Structure formats: structure tokens, C-alpha cells
């Protein structure tokens, strides 16, 4: 019996799953994250191997039974990087058939089985991609504006709002007490000092604090999220224009940790903006974690056609490994 591997390597973590051609996932493995361009190719590949070896071991199969690997790798941004990473994976894993995608693309596949779609990925950073009906694809990558980069942008905006409120150039916000408490600081002056001297740590860690205050009804916090939602919807609208058919219903997939917040204001803003400007768009939370999208792309190759997103075997086995993205009340969200 032959098996295939799906891999998702981001800057934070590397995840691998191994399964058969019938949508049954049998093993999962984890390792630290890395990007070949910033952390080195050798390190990135060693972490992929670590995660894959764990998945294969858990599945109880021999490495020689794995015949296909599809990897969504951060840092797969420029044309020359795809063959570089593909060759490195072949050497590292000894698997005869390897296919590399940008990590945004596997997130897209984890949310739709349509032949054309758009995806917005908001985690630590942000990326977006569009697949055209003819199979062509555009990944926004380095075209993404700095102020749109996910948890980093949201956390930074929250800290700036606190400083603005204290200086009197912005309105009062409950974010002040919440962010000071998060950092264990006694004053906004201390917060500003640490901000200027880059001593606050990753801004992405402040994003959950922001969403907690959004839920309390704070207008400043809500404004930050609303502005961010309208800003990243520009990428979805650009993707829809690239598809070029205003009559063609098109999935706009949401993936990434920012879209897992309990408060759904961000999704509401994106949905309302799309409804006004692109009524053909169908907003959908990705059903699976991105690594399942890599596995699905492998199944597509094996079967020569799009494998069903909601295949019963896949839903059941992904659920057993904790690879369903959202709680039951949010699964399959669609807004037209």
C-alpha cells in the first residue's frame, strides 16, 4: 500500500501528516518552524524531516511506502525557489515525487475544492492568493503592505492607540489598562519607552488582547479591527478582479490564527465589504488546518481531479488529529 505526505512549514512550526489515497490520515508529526531564506536551507529541511519521520512512525509504515510529498513552505516566494526547495526535499526525504507550494496555497486548498478561489491568510503576518479558472495563480507575497501583516499589524496598532490616547491625540480606550496589564507595566510612559527601544517583544502576542477588548465594545479596538478588515479585503477584491467574471460565484477562503478569534467582527467587516463590492464572493472559513490542504493537493494529483473537501474519511481522520480549524458553531461559515 502506498502513502503520501503533506507538509506545512511556517516560521513558527512545521507539521506533517501521512495518509492513504482514500482520505485517511494515519500519522502526524511536529517540529519547530524555519524559513530557508532566513534560517538556512539545511535547518529548514532537517525540521521537515523531523516532522515527517514522526508522522511516518506514528502511522506504523515504512518510509519506502511514501511515494508522494506535497509541501507548503514559507519562503517559496520567487520562481527560482520552487525547484531549489523541491530538489532539497527529494535529497532529504528520498521520496521520488515532490511538489512545493507557497504555504498560502495549501491553506487555500484546505478551504475549498473549487477550481477557482481566493484566500486570505492572516496569522503572524498576512498573505493572499488567487487561483484562476484556467489554473493560473497569483500570490501577493511581497506585494502585501506592511500595515496588513496580521497579528503584527494588529498588535502594533493597539499599542500605538494606547500611546495616542495618553498623549491626547487619540480617544480614550480600554486597551490602555489591558495592554499595561499584559506587559506588567505601571504607566504608558514605560510602554512608550519599551516600544521605542524595541523591548516589547513580538507585536503579534498583543493581538489576543485586542480582540478581548473588541468583545467589550471598545470603539477604538473595534475601529482597529474594522480598518484592518477593510484593508485586507482589498486583496480579495483584487483577486476577484483577476478572475475577471463578476457573475462567477467564487469562494474567498479565510485561514490563519487571526481568523480563529472568538469575536467575529473581522469576518463581519470582510463579508459586508465583499457583499457591497463583489456579490459573487462566497466567504468561507477554511475547514481544515493548512497541512490538510497539502495532503489534499497530493490527493488531487493521485486522482487526477479535485478530491472532495468534505470526504467522510478525511473529516473523520482530520478530526481525530485535531486538524479541524474551528469549533462546530463556525464550521462552514458562508456569507454571500
Automatic annotation (TrEMBL):
Pfam families: BcrAD_BadFG. It comes from the Bacteria. Residues 5-298 form the ATPase BadF/BadG/BcrA/BcrD type domain. InterPro entries: ATPase_BadF, ATPase_NBD, Euk-type_GlcNAc_Kinase. PANTHER family: N-ACETYL-D-GLUCOSAMINE KINASE. This is ATPase BadF/BadG/BcrA/BcrD type domain-containing protein. It comes from Cohnella pontilimi.
